[in-house]
Amino acid sequence: MSDPTLTRGGSPSSLIASGPWTAAQSVSLERLAAALPTIDAQKKDVVIDLSRVEHLDTLGAWLLERVLRRYQLQDLKPTLVGVPERFRGLLEKIHDVNRRPPVPQRERNKLAVGLERIGRATAGLYTDFGHFLAMLGAIGVSLGGAVLRPRSLRATSTVYHLYRVGWQAVPIIFLITFLIGGIIAQQGIFHFRKFGADAYVVDMVGILVLREIGVLIVSIMVAGRSGSAYTAELGSMKMREEIDALRTMGRDPVSILVLPRVIALVCALPILTFLGSMAALYGGGLVAWFYGGMSPDIFIARLREAVSVTHFEVGIIKAPFMALVIGAVACSEGFRVKGSAESLGMQTTTSVVKSIFLVIVLDGLFAVFFASIGM
Amino acid sequence: MQEQSQALAISVRDLTVGFGERNVLDGLSLDVRRGEILGLVGASGGGKSVLLRTIIGLIPPRGGRIAIMGAQTDYGDTAAMQDIGRHWGILFQQGALFSSLTVQQNVQFPMRENLEISQTLLDELATAKLEMVGLSPDDGNKFPSELSGGMTKRAALARALALDPEIVFLDEPTSGLDPISASDFDALISTLQQTLGLTVFMVTHDLDSLNTVCDRVAALSDGKIVEVGPIEQLVSSQHPWVRSYFHNARARTRAAESH
Fold first, then answer.
1. Contacts with B118 from chain A: Cβ below 8 Å
2. A254, A319, B184, B194: which one has the fewest Cβ atoms less than 10 Å from its Cβ?
3. Count of C-beta atoms within a 10 Å radius of residue A232
4. Range of lowest pLDDT (A165-179, A263-277, B71-85)
């Protein structure tokens, strides 16, 4: 295929365009349209002959139109001659475009934008907390309803969710806590050995796992695994207007959808915490045996001295509260999903981040509380 | 024979496409001539979208041949398919605009990927395309989520036309639009088809579109094209499914209105 050209014709004020004026030739075409042949300003009329143009597409037509407009700016009167019939419609259509440049986006002060974002985020904290409290309240009300009329509780749904967030989570919880227990023991042995205190690793593993790590790791796992699933499920129901449909049938979505999920979570988390703590102690014991050379008999005997039932209680008491926080955050974020899939993804992320944050804050508050009552 | 294959934009021969046990399309043959608007009708779930998606290479066929602009397609050859892909533009049913880009950037995307042109020219061309489909230059700064249904379809059409394709595939272009927007969109397709010399392959249920813009209509039933021709021919067809499509209560009401 030959190159497109725009050359002087017979007279000084006539130009001849030829070749393919299409997007495939965009580089040479752009150069052509930029380097316009100068026309003597005395001659008012410029004639551009298109009869030798083989192909023309939107790009070529626009560049021709650009040439015309630039000559018009130079006070010349350009005209097209020899326009093949098949190009006429396109050229006419292109003649009308780009007459008015789009209104440029208003540049905003960067500082003002930053300040606005901080302000909005701060104000958002209040509304977020409001939504959380409202969800807790709604759960409380529907729980009250379920206590007064036990038949209104969705038992099948509760058992189903208990199976999903409890039973199905067991393998991964076992695996993670087992590894964490082993890692803590290994680090303890490695560092305590320097001052001959490696026997105390049992105290550390026992107290740490039972009081803090067990419940914390399990809560974080559950927030990531089940909390996000709750948000996504409720969010997609919200998107498909299923929740609105429930409301119009006079049913309360909180007692039908949220209460069974939260009850399941509150039941499952203490069990998972117990299993997780046992797995962590088991992992710690194995590492102490193989890495630290401490036989299982000694490990168990030292563990019996080091930990009391109080440590276990401190850990397990926290679990249902963690579950309540995770469930309430997950469900309230699910209900806040708007119509689009992006909003569903965003709300799911928010739900996980927020529930993990709240779990850790709650754990801190519990630490202060238990310390002050001497547990 | 050579002459005839030159005049065909799309030629489908004995196409078989299926999922699992079932063949959705079973030995289907269809020709789309250059420069015509062909409407494809068929029952819901009857394989219209499957045919469209097979032609554009999103679903692998089980058998049969497809030629685009006289060239046989080989869906395994990615480079060849990219080359063929420059000959067509596709308007998906939901628009399929990239949600993270503005409308202007959406229209520029195919040009930026395929052509070497300056940003100024890109901007001008994108605005030109937007104006050609009846949007204002200011709409270019909006994000797809800020557009109404009709505007989304127009913006998606502008993107489909970005590389000046010879063939445009439209998947239910007027579904979800109110009758006014739908008839405006029909008119737009018709005008653009004439100015740009497009070949249009349109899947539609809209009887008004079939009446006003389509040169020929193909009816798909039981995995085959059972009737193809001008709308009058389909209306008077004796095939039972085609008869019930064009002679049900709603179709009759429309026919009565238009007389």
1. 30
2. B194
3. 19
4. B71-85
Cα A42 to Cα A39, A48, A69: the distances in Å are: 9, 17, 18
What mean pLDDT comes out for the span A327-356?
A: 92
Q: Cβ contacts (< 8 Å) between A35 and chain B: which residues? A: none
Q: Which of A61, A95, A129 is the last residue of a domain?
A: A95
- Are A191 and A267 contained in the same domain? yes
Residues A15 and A146 in one domain: no
Shared-domain flag, residues A366 and A246: yes
Instruction: Please report residues of B whose CB lies closer than 8 A to that of A97.
Output: 127-128, 131-132
Compare all CA atoms of chain B with the CA of A58 and give the residue at the minimum distance.
B164
Q: What pLDDT sits at residue B258?
A: 58
The pLDDT tens digits for B174-211 are: 887 788 888 888 888 888 888 778 888 888 888 887 88
pLDDT in tens, A30-65: 787 777 777 666 667 778 887 787 888 888 888 888
The answer to whether B128 contacts A89, with C-beta atoms less than 8 Å apart, is: no
Q: How many CB pairs under 8 A join A and B?
A: 66
- Segments forming the whole domain that contains residue A152: 116-372
Whole-structure pTM value: 0.74
* C-alpha pair distances (Å), A242 with each of A142, A232, A234: 19, 14, 9
Residues A211-226: tens digit of each pLDDT: 999 999 999 999 999 9
ipTM given for this complex: 0.76
Token pair in block for residue A11: 């007279």
Which among B116, B118, B128 is the nearest to A97, CB-wise? B128
Q: Do B117 and A98 touch (CB under 8 A)?
A: no
Indicate the average pLDDT of chain A: 88
Interface test with B, best of A97, A343, A346 (most B CBs within 10 A): A97
Our CA dihedral for B16, B18, B22, B24, rounded to 10 degrees, sits at -70
Pairing of strands B216-221, B224-229: antiparallel
CATH number at residue A77: 3.30.750.24
A94 contacts chain B (CB < 8 A): yes
Number of domains in chain A: 2
Distance CA B28, CA B8 (A): 16
Q: What's CA A102's distance to the chain center, in Å?
A: 33
